UniProtKB/TrEMBL annotation:
The keyword Glycosyltransferase does not apply. It is an enzyme of class 5 (isomerase). It catalyses: UDP-alpha-D-glucose = UDP-alpha-D-galactose. This is UDP-glucose 4-epimerase. Pathway: Carbohydrate metabolism; galactose metabolism. GO terms for biological process: galactose catabolic process via UDP-galactose, Leloir pathway. Residues 3-250 form the NAD-dependent epimerase/dehydratase domain. GO terms for molecular function: UDP-glucose 4-epimerase activity.
């Protein structure tokens, strides 16, 4: 299948591209490089530098490369920033997404896999979270992802777009070639590993007075390769006529607290990691754990690397890789 990956020069996008190529699909990476990195575009993929808001260029790219399906991952994704700059999030995540849907209609491409997020649920009423639970985002990031999911439902009825929306929990880890590199970095695992590597003096734990076993927030970490494989499964299911669907993507179980992640990183790296305890980060729910039973049941998805040790070790190997 010929697949366009928007945001394919980013962290998760590069791994999705890798998995597509591995499975014999062709990939065209469409990325503005405003956050992505040219060198993250996987060898073997065609790279097109373009803006999501440029509908005509998107349409021309879809037609020129005879694209059959799209994975849409290009988006802004920082909760804190979204609260300070909602306009940026509505423009890039909602308008950008609608521009893509217009281009797809014009180019007659009707299959889409969308990167959504656990942030659509807001402060969850229960754990583990199921797809049918209430969606009440507590920040513009989650709101804009939910807005696009809602547009998809109406576009499906009117224009025949079929979609799978994947609500990611905490993506982490790396492959040999592709890893996490955000500027600025805000995610826990890369920050903890930077502290282990001596690239930052310490790691700040955002609050230790939550109603959790050790007082720190609990999250559901999922290996980026397991996440990427779900995209490939979803694309192939859509191609076989699978109806539109929304799926959570996490490993489930008990999840891991911030302190457990730090302890795990100490074991993996065999380094000292100084810790400071700071204030809670606004908008952080105490616990976010996915029920992923729907995607397991309907698409046969199974995470292969559920152990936090394996996830953290892969990220550490990637950070320690020899660089040119
Ligand atoms: N966190 C932390 N210190 C940091 C960064 C993150 O304690 O420097 C916590 C954060 O409060 C959350 C968890 O680590 O409970 C995971 O945060 P991350 O930003 O990696 O992902 P999120 O859950 O926001 O998607």
């Amino acid at each position: 299948m010929r697949v366009m990956v928007t945001g394919g020069a980013g962290y998760i996008g590069s791994v999705v591209t890798e998995e597509l190529l591995k499975g014999g699909d062709e990939a065209v990476v469409y990325d503005s490089l405003y956050k992505g990195h040219r060198e993250a575009v996987v060898e073997g993929a065609t790279f097109v530098k373009g803006d999501l808001l440029d509908t005509a260029f998107l349409r021309d790219t879809l037609v020129k490369h005879r694209i059959e399906a799209v994975v849409h991952m290009a988006a802004d994704s920082l909760v804190g920033e979204s609260v300070k700059e909602p306009a940026k999030y509505f423009r890039n995540n909602v308008l950008g997404g609608l521009s893509l849907l217009d281009a797809m209609r014009e180019a007659k491409v009707s299959s889409l896999v969308f990167s959504s997020t656990a942030a659509v649920y807001g402060e969850p009423a229960k754990q583990p979270i199921e797809e049918s639970d209430p969606t009440e985002p507590t920040n513009p990031y989650g709101e804009t992802k939910l807005a696009f999911e809602r547009a998809l439902r109406w576009y499906e009825g009117a224009y025949g777009v079929r979609f799978v929306s994947l609500r990611y929990f905490n993506a982490a880890g790396a492959t040999e070639r592709c890893g996490e590199r955000h500027h600025p970095e805000t995610h826990l695992i890369p920050l903890v590993l930077q502290a282990a590597a001596g690239e930052r003096p310490d790691i700040t734990v955002f609050g230790e007075d939550y109603a959790t076993p050790d007082g720190t927030c609990v999250r559901d970490y999922i290996h980026v390769v397991d996440l990427a494989q779900a995209h490939v499964l979803a694309l192939h299911a859509l191609a076989k006529g699978h109806p539109s669907a929304i799926y959570n993507l996490g490993c489930g179980g008990e999840g891991y607290s911030v302190k457990q992640v730090i302890d795990c990183a100490r074991r993996v790296t065999q380094r000292d990691i100084p810790v400071r305890v700071g204030a809670r980060r606004p908008g952080d729910p105490a616990v976010l754990i996915a029920s992923s039973s729907r995607i397991m049941r309907e698409l046969g998805w199974r995470p292969q690397q559920q152990q936090l040790e394996a996830i953290v070790a892969s990220a550490w190997r990637w950070m320690q890789r020899p660089r040119a």
